[in-house]
Write a structure and sequence with these properties.
The structure is a homodimer.
Chain A lengths: L46 H7 L8 E2 L11 E5 L10 E11 L14 E3 L19 E13 L3 H19 L2 H4 L21 H13 L24 H24 L7 E10 L2 E7 L3 E6 L2 E4 L10 H10 L8 E2 L15 E4 L8 E4 L7 E2 L1 E2 L6 E2 L9 E2 L21 E5 L11 E5 L1 H4 L4 H13 L8 H14 L1 E3 L2 E3 L11 E7 L8
Parallel strand pairs in A: 10-13
Antiparallel strand pairs in A: 1-2, 2-21, 3-4, 3-5, 5-6, 6-7, 6-16, 7-17, 8-9, 8-18, 11-12, 14-15, 18-21, 19-20
Helix pairs in contact in A: 2-5, 8-9
């Protein structure tokens, strides 16, 4: 996340791998390190390899060595930045988890994770649930990218923990999700609403109802009377989306709490993919991006959250809670800084109500620094941060002030669902996830063309092809080192940022439950 | 806007045309009526005809009698509701205005409208600006629909006034808009930025700069030094959008002020179309809708603002300003009312951070009435209003309480631009505007098919065809009176609401400036 946070990272002094210290926190912290820096576990790197990977001159591209380590033959590649931070602040995680329903009779959620990896590798091979238990287990495929800033601590922590929070929230609704054709009951412990019941789902319903301690079977004396008010119907899909949304919030709360006792530096964006019961869910908080490439066509699966895309939300918040601006910022936007000599003149502006621009007479108050300032990759909130959603950043303040950034940041993802099992996918249909290092220099169309072209030239049975394609993408975005820096096609500048890319083939979803 | 506002309209007692009173304000008002009830001026109806049109049993469809009254051979038709309110609460306005630039040397905007109709008819024929003055005049085509609720007063006022506010705001930037290739200067009175200057626009620029009292010609001793900070470039289109946005706000402020001294009842939605310098601008605040039909394909030109579509904005506001809920409402949404016996159980909910749903343990506070309640056309904010953007409603309160609705309503439109002059349009390519009475019962696709089919069967040279097509649409949405009510195709229920429809052919835009 190049130059995203105006912090004194350049003053970095510690050794990268110095035992016990994550080394990228310039101010230093005497608190213990709970989540030491590393590269993604699935890369299977030795400490030596990790050290070698952090060569800001050579910028070696790391790829997945053993294709079978990840589910669905997922491909992965990454490269470190060109020197903006000593460590690679991107992190990645991929897991296949089995989520077991909450024990019957427990009325409050059990906060002990009842999840387990399906095997010693995250690819999920072996040890699935027993056939007889399947109704009460969910198999969850999970891929995630985190792009850190102002330190790697939060990105590392999130890469270790976020999937457990998602599993915990799904656990609360496992029983419902496992019962096809049963709409989620509005209130747990009451008669569920059922629709289009098949004999199988009727049996499942009866079982689910009894497990949930419902008042009784339909028609029994304890059946509650029919209600005459309308009731909104909530889909299974909405429950999964709600689970992912609330997991992000819990993750952020956990980071806040742990920051009080451990050294966990910075903040990070988060882009996660969950595959569950035939659907892909893409949750995004930040400026990473996911696209599906299907038959060569691009289907965007995320939108970026930046000072520009979230301007109106932030201006609205500042307008309603002006104390958050500490008397140093204005919620209005101007095309550039206002100068004192311009007071009394008419200048272009816009506020939270406006997509367009108009002229206003400049007052003294307009001389304050704008809440949102700059364009494109240089746009900043409170002159500090260039991304408006993500995890962490609880202690981040405007330089040399007591103005906190966090109230303007949201940890809530936007979640998009894609009904994977409804389509037949070919071997070249993929979901591409990348941190902004990729998308800053390559358009969706360029990525789609590169991947489609690359895969077409591979042996369709080569399981390594998706990692090779990911490596190709990272190479195209990093470029090659020429006299004056990293260059990509058409002599454009390559990305000097950390770059991480997943390529997930979709045809495997056809066969999964 | 059927059953939109839970008000005692049914208790209506006054005579509809009773002189001086608009008659639809059940509580009555002793204040004078400034904007008496009427039907759109361009219909040219006599008082008798207006009275006859308000027949809730026959529901006669009113159409434009003289095609030439409106620009571009625009078609128009309307029908009154089936009895929900005595008056037709929809209003419409169509004008062609000439906007003259603000006089040179006046540094603050002149609030006297420097607009005039181009002729005694709104079709704009005759008396255009003199050729030599053209640089400093803008010709503005304007169509608008207003859908009133809880009285017709605000809808009538807005139909008389909103275009003047738009013209006033455009007047401030007329000089800039009239100078092609000149980007709007960030600060008025300073050197403008010019791009791709042709000799003509260079002359225009010099003239504009001198008129604006700029520091001097480029290169002169008084030229300010080059700046090294970045400056956002603002387009002409953004200026027009900003003008429309701010005009809506000014309109709402004027209504608030006049409500203090005049009897102006209720509130209204507003859907306006502005054609200016080759582009169509569609501004929408409410639940009316505009679509373009081009070669039979639908291009949506507006989105509706309802309690459901704006749930998260409203919940966010309530979360941050809980006093607006008066201790009687909760910002959380539940699928239905929570009952006291459910306290302690887990129920589905969502807050402003969530698109999905999750379970929470019900507390006493959750027994309050939800800020957003109901589904589809029955969804309400604060149990009162079913539309979340529009004009007026300043005095509207939750029934039997002191909780005001207005803080949750926005008068800000969403404005979409369509580059009309960039396309060649055929005679059957049209922009359709309709109040929700139309769209409640007909889909975009049904409207597009009906219009396309109807126009294909007309003589292409018949200027009356667009009004005939509008009449056909209103007929399809109203239906015919059968034993049990108004019925449309496939024995569906027709709309019992007021219905108003414009059909604006786009081919005339090809030839306009």
């Amino acid at each position: 996340m190049l130059t995203r946070v105006k912090s004194a990272v350049a003053n970095f002094m510690g050794g990268m791998m110095a035992g016990g210290s994550n080394g990228d926190h310039p101010g230093g912290s005497d608190m213990p390190l709970k989540y030491p820096y590393s590269r993604p576990e699935f890369l299977g790197l030795s400490p030596d390899e990790i050290e070698c990977s952090a060569d800001h001159i050579a910028r070696p591209i790391l790829i997945l060595k053993e294709t079978k380590r990840l589910p669905w033959s997922t491909g992965y590649a990454e490269v470190i930045n060109a020197g903006k931070s000593t460590l690679n602040e991107d992190q990645a995680c991929c897991e296949v988890l089995v989520v077991k329903r909450r024990p019957a009779g427990s009325s409050t959620p059990n906060r002990t994770p009842l999840t387990r990896r399906r095997s010693s590798l995250p690819n999920g091979e072996g040890m699935g649930p027993r056939e007889s238990d399947k109704l009460l287990y969910l198999t969850l495929h999970y891929w995630a990218l985190f792009d850190g800033h102002a330190g790697s601590g939060v990105a590392v922590a999130a890469s270790r923990l976020l999937h457990h929070h998602i599993a915990l929230h799904l656990q609360e609704v496992t029983e419902i999700l496992c019962t096809p054709n049963l709409l989620p009951p509005t209130c747990l412990g009451e008669e569920p609403i059922n629709h289009h019941l098949t004999p199988t789902s009727q049996r499942a319903l009866t079982r689910a109802a009894s497990l949930r301690g419902a008042a009784g079977a339909p028609g029994s004396p304890s059946t509650p009377p029919t209600r005459f008010f309308t009731e909104k119907k909530v889909s299974h899909e909405s429950l999964v989306i709600g689970a992912i949304e609330n997991a992000f919030k819990d993750m952020d709360v956990q980071i806040e709490k742990e920051k009080a006792v451990y050294n966990i530096s910075g903040g990070c964006t988060a882009l996660v993919v969950v595959y569950l019961l035939g659907k892909l869910y893409v949750g995004n908080a930040g400026d990473s991006r996911a696209i599906i490439i299907r038959a060569g066509e691009v289907i965007p699966m995320s939108t970026e959250f930046t000072p520009e895309s979230e301007r109106r939300r932030l201006q609205f918040l500042a307008y309603m809670q002006p104390h958050l601006l500490g008397n140093e910022f204005t919620h209005l936007e101007f095309p550039r800084r206002v100068q004192r000599k311009e007071v009394g003149k008419r200048m272009l502006y816009r506020d939270f109500t406006m997509a367009g621009w108009a002229y206003k007479t400049i007052e003294d108050d307009d001389l304050k620094f704008p809440l949102i300032y700059g364009e494109g990759k240089k746009a900043r909130v409170l002159a500090t941060i260039g991304v408006t959603r993500g995890l962490g950043d609880h202690n981040l303040k405007v330089h040399d002030s007591n103005i906190y950034i966090k109230p303007f940041l949201s940890c809530c993802p936007e979640v998009k669902a894609y009904p994977l099992a409804q389509y037949e996918h070919e071997a070249d249909d993929v979901l591409v996830l990348g941190t902004d290092g990729l998308w800053d220099v390559l358009s969706n169309q360029e990525v789609a063309e590169a991947v489609t072209c690359f895969l077409a030239n591979c042996d369709p049975d080569d399981q390594h092809r998706y990692t090779m394609a990911a490596q190709d993408l990272v190479m195209r975005a990093r470029g090659v080192l020429k006299d004056r820096g990293w260059r990509i096609s058409n002599d454009r500048l390559g990305s000097g940022d950390d770059i991480s890319v997943y390529i997930i083939p979709l045809m495997y979803g056809n066969k999964q439950n």
